[in-house]
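Subject: Tyrosine--tRNA ligase structure
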Amino acid sequence: MTNYQSDLLRLLNDRGYIHQLTDADGLDALASKTIVPGYIGFDATADSLHVGNLVSIMLLRRLQQAGHKPIVVMGGGTTKVGDPSGKDEVRKLLDNDGISANIASIRSCFERFLTFGDGPTDAILVNNADWLDSLEYIPFLRDVGRHFTINRMLTFDSVKLRLDREQPLTFLEFNYMILQAYDFLELSRQHSCRLQLGGSDQWGNIVNGIELGRRIDGTELFGLTTPLITKADGSKMGKSVDGAIWLNENRLSPYDYWQFWRNADDRDVGKFMRLFTDIDLEEITRLEALQGSEINEAKKVLADAATAMAHGEDAARDAASTAQQTFEQGNAGGDLPVFEVTDDEISILNALVNIGFCASKGEAKRMVAGGGARIDGEPIKDAGAMIAVSGGDIKISAGKKKHGLLRRSES
């Protein structure tokens, strides 16, 4: 079904978010006549989310834009277990303090994308530790566990993948799908939540929650998943050659975030605009049709819009200005990373490591050998070279995309 009546499903369909729906007609009818609270869960395994989580965050944003209520569920409880979906090995478990610190840090990210408050369509953030931590093991197994058969649990991709690869799957992780299903049950009871959204790998977990709600409470619940978001080269969204593209500024600068979007493949521009920006659909159609060098202007529009949403308008303008100065005018932009040198000179290897372009001197040495290191635009071919830093700023580059400044410390 694609002739949706509700603003919610029309919006999600037009922008490419819909992969699977448990009951399209039922959800469409419900969303047409009442406010639908919907949730997505996020485990707190790090102090920031990354671009791989962005489609889920945007789903909640679209839910709110269509007049419904987003519920952000932080996995303070499930993080202690670990979601086996998409994992080949057991995840390192965090203690309560580490999980709490991560949740506090992650909340600031959601505040950029969602409007929180007490209104009927305002977003709320809840922690599933509030109900999972107080569960008693035997009563939980008796009341909830009896609705899950081992036969069926073994058919889920998150389990089959690990077993097929002969990777260990702990009993702790095996319980994750039951706990996630129980989250949906609790959310339907506490917040009248009727919809769970998530990536395509969460389909089995979502269906479990829907069936649990029907069996225990007789509640009609719904599920919606997005397609797997990949880049045109087939790689997974959220990763780059340099690692994760983090959403929090303390993990990745707004300039580097802007550059990630600016360097998108030509073939991805339209898709990324629909999924990750609020740019009007007609304007997206115009921009993605640009050919040759003109597509670069569309990429800048994408980078500006995505960065403004995650870091604010000022950060987006600064990043664009820095990029223009660095790449188009040949100057050193003011938003570039800076390393202050305490001596009159520094080795090229130490400079590349200290500014964060290389993880080790060995990596820096390989970069120099490959011709990827430059000072003020000139290639450095000697791994033993020393860089004089006694005057003004020195521009250091690693490859075509990483640029920074070496500056003599005044202290």
